[in-house]
Design a protein that fits this description.
Two copies of one chain form a homodimer. Chain A is α/β, with parallel strands linked by helices. The first copy, chain A, contains 18 helices and 19 strands. The mean pLDDT of chain A is about 90. Chains A and B meet through helix 3, helix 6, helix 9 and helix 12 of A and helix 3, helix 6, helix 9 and helix 12 of B.
Chain lengths: ~475, ~475
Amino acid sequence: MDEQKEVLRRLRPLFYPESVAVVGASDNPFKLGFHALAAVTSSGFQGQVYPLNPRGGTIQGLKAYRSVTELPQGVELFVYAVPEREVAGSLREAAAKGARAAVVFAGGFLEIGGEGRRRQEELAGIAREYGIGLVGPNCIGMFNTHAPINATFASPLSFMRKGRVSLVSQSGGVGTALLCGLTEEMVGVGKFISAGNRAVLGFPDYLEYLEADPHTSVVCLFLEGVERAREFLVKARECAAAKPVLAVCSGFTGSAHRVALSHTGTAATSETVYRGSLAQAGILQLEDIGRMTRLAKALDMFGSPPYGGAFLATHTAGPAIIIADICEREGIRFPRLSEERAARMRKFLPRYSEPNNPLDMFAQAWTDTSLYLRSADIALEQENVGCAVALFASGLGAGPAFPAAEFAELGRKHGKPVFLCLIAPMNLAGELEEAQRHKVCVVNSPEKMGHLLSDLAAYKRLREALPREG
Amino acid sequence: MDEQKEVLRRLRPLFYPESVAVVGASDNPFKLGFHALAAVTSSGFQGQVYPLNPRGGTIQGLKAYRSVTELPQGVELFVYAVPEREVAGSLREAAAKGARAAVVFAGGFLEIGGEGRRRQEELAGIAREYGIGLVGPNCIGMFNTHAPINATFASPLSFMRKGRVSLVSQSGGVGTALLCGLTEEMVGVGKFISAGNRAVLGFPDYLEYLEADPHTSVVCLFLEGVERAREFLVKARECAAAKPVLAVCSGFTGSAHRVALSHTGTAATSETVYRGSLAQAGILQLEDIGRMTRLAKALDMFGSPPYGGAFLATHTAGPAIIIADICEREGIRFPRLSEERAARMRKFLPRYSEPNNPLDMFAQAWTDTSLYLRSADIALEQENVGCAVALFASGLGAGPAFPAAEFAELGRKHGKPVFLCLIAPMNLAGELEEAQRHKVCVVNSPEKMGHLLSDLAAYKRLREALPREG
């Protein structure tokens, strides 16, 4: 408990800074420093912002400072939007002024070897000497929707949906792709960290922080390789014991290596070693970032409930068959309904509709959506049914909307998660968002639903296979 | 050639009708017949429309007819938005009036067995006797953006992007999911057919028509089972020899069977039999509808060129590593650049950027996007490089847009396809659409790009493995 408090306190100046200096701030939109300053100011950051530029004057309407020495004492976070050669000197001055945290965008460090390696060692040495929590270098920065602070060079990220899924990505590009995926799935983000070369802060630190962070419910990682492997696995295990930790790993093939070696200075070793180590730490490794995004959505919404077998109801058989095919291959059961429950369903199901699981209620359920609610209410009573899944083709101009609020209410009544596969060619966004607001977990294709149920089961199996602690 | 003309002529009244009757048309938006009529009228259909309803009067502003007998002679297409029991009698009257084609939405035929089977036999008997091309029953109808005619009950489908990818789906729900996928990928659709129970027209007929159809470049199928298997394979082979035919198949597991048996009256047999038969016919079977959608996009845009190895360039290594991992596992090569070409690239590549393939040009290529053009221009000269792939993280508020028009121009210069993996969290749609307008094939995640390149290679291998005809 004290240890948790310690890491929250130690990295507070990074994630919740009281003041921020942007070194290299500029009024020229073709400069990185323009966008770095715009990111901070657009984020709704409440503290003092100090643009630094040798020319002085005003930048983006703010008083600019010519040098670090002009700054008042105690500015907490320094964002570096300057070339690699200028960072170390400035960081040393910042340290003297009491800097507590730093974000360094520039490349040209460990990943290029030689002088870059020496440059990184110098930078890390200064940060360690003065206890500065440094993100990067060779990264796109970090943001925290809860502060709020956007210490990237992308002001659009100031407008990410606020939430509790936090991300740490070795690659800025993949981090961006992950944010893109979460936006598409309408999932709120807590903290985002582009880890880059991890000269000072690395995965072990971020995991320790996110474990303790009360605003993070699920942690998503993108890894190409890890430094401090033993420490990583210890922190990973501790974090995964507290909340779901998911990972996508990359960089296992020859071509990948040719790119990666010039990348952030590490390259993945064997895929098998990775998967085994992560699994032992309680981290589920996913096949792709889309699947990780949707699994994170479900775990954020429902935590880690038992799930178990699924009840699947539809008005259109085809997409349900796709879901069933994927699930059965991955070992998800659709438990048969008890005789007694089947008999109760038969009373209201349309003619020719058999009370099976999966359950096809034909077009009648498209016009009378209460059939979804009545059948799920009975199925969810059954002990080996751990969740209900509805499949609905919406947006075709004719049918009513899916009764998402009532479906969510049923889930709460039975204490079991509810899912919706919503097929809607034109006007998905509104319906999806509305349903998720009510706590129905929605995806927009049968394949995504099949994989989500499979990945939830895989996560459950992974957690159950771990030795109990404590 | 004559045979082709024959099928175009024979099914012309279905796909390009001169006049349409909507049986069961209604002014009540809670009735299917309201939406069936609205679909026809919203589609921009230029011929005469005849709403039929026993009450007469006007419906949606059009003069309504009390019965088929009131209609003028020669109305070509009859759309049935009435219950299953009323279809056969009305179709017989329509036949007497010269009907040439029909669409039947209602379920309650073969898929329920017993009386349903007899009902379907009666319907098929009438259609066959009078030479009426009938779609369904138990389907969501068909539309053709080139007529234009929308004979579904979904008026939003009137506004699908017009194009050359045509779809035949056994399931209406999966058909809708496919349309949703094509919309997401901004791919234009030619003809869409929800085949349903295939009482009269079936996959062999649709394949024969789409082979001959000059407005169809690629055919996508969703199959749960096929009737007339030998005829299907003959027509499939002929169609696949003329243009790419892709398929997703479903319904192989136990749970899937429980849904499918009550579905459109057939169920998939063994997965292996399917895959083998389709491959022999030259049809590529895809894992999921998203992948089929994107492969159709590329084949529609570029035809079936040799492709070969890929040249991949990026400003951000992480997502390129994901692409490379997927591609190498699936056997896609990233050919090494010749010494001479590497030397020419080295002259303009940023410091520390090695002229490898995949090629990492660091953040410099994000600010100076001409690096993408210069490197691809050299790489595409190389014989074993069949296409160029650019990876670009856009929409971050700071960088310029990717130079899509110039990249497409390079592709044309070298006669090779060009692809763009565009990672853009907020404002993807506009950039994606603009790039595709120039004939750059765009997807929005590294995994999608990896799978697209893999699926293109799989399609190429499949075609090359077929014995040469003629």
